[in-house]
């Protein structure tokens, strides 16, 4: 059986010399992993790319094959900017570790796709984007935090976090934070998310993102 789907790349795993496992979030299949020939073009499978593809189901395996893969959007605003590229690396890893294989949260794909396109279009003031993304992801997964909920994770950054929570989306992006504050707040929000998911997330790309924004 062959099914058309649109998917968002979260992460990839190389399998031998000829295959790539693509961990993705799709609109109609939820969070799934697919196998694809490694020669399909590595640039297609960068984190948070939005792709159109055909899925060839395998009745003998849960690892279905992708074919006829193409980019749904060029995302030139992201791929031409090292800061945005690093943000998508973080977002992809966050989703990869937060959403379990086989999960299908209603509306999550469309929300993620809209956030990617928003980041792609932003020309400035996106340094706080990943903080907003974490908070909205928590809401999408069913546990929107209040300032009180975040107090055990906030340490000395409670006042800053409260300001972020009470800000509109536009004002959120304009709240001034230095690199250390931004990194610490992101870490606190990830810890909050992991606490409610009952698993430590250990987002390795967070350190890279924090260093970039110093």
Describe the structure concisely for a colleague:
This protein has 214 residues and is α+β, with helices and mostly antiparallel strands.
Question: How would the blueprint of this fold be written?
Answer:
Elements: E1 2-15, E2 19-26, E3 30-37, E4 50-56, E5 64-71, H1 76-79, H2 82-98, H3 108-121, H4 129-140, H5 147-154, H6 158-166, H7 169-174, H8 179-197, H9 205-212
Parallel strand pairs: 3-5
Antiparallel strand pairs: 1-2, 1-4, 2-3, 4-5
Helix pairs in contact: 2-4, 2-9, 4-8, 5-6, 5-8, 8-9
Summary tags:
5-stranded mixed barrel; 214 residues; 21% strand; 2 domains; alpha+beta; OB fold (Dihydrolipoamide Acetyltransferase, E2P)
Give a structural overview:
It is a single chain. The protein is α+β, with helices and mostly antiparallel strands and 214 residues long. It has helices spanning 76-79, 82-98, 108-121, 129-140, 147-154, 158-166, 169-174, 179-197, 205-212, and strands spanning 2-15, 19-26, 30-37, 50-56, 64-71. It has two domains: 2-71, Beta Barrel (OB fold (Dihydrolipoamide Acetyltransferase, E2P)), CATH 2.40.50; 76-212, no CATH class. It contains nine helices and five strands, in the order E-E-E-E-E-H-H-H-H-H-H-H-H-H. Strands 1-2-3-5-4 form a five-stranded mixed barrel. Strand 2 and strand 3 (30-37) form a beta hairpin. It is globular. 31% of the residues are buried. The mean pLDDT is 92.
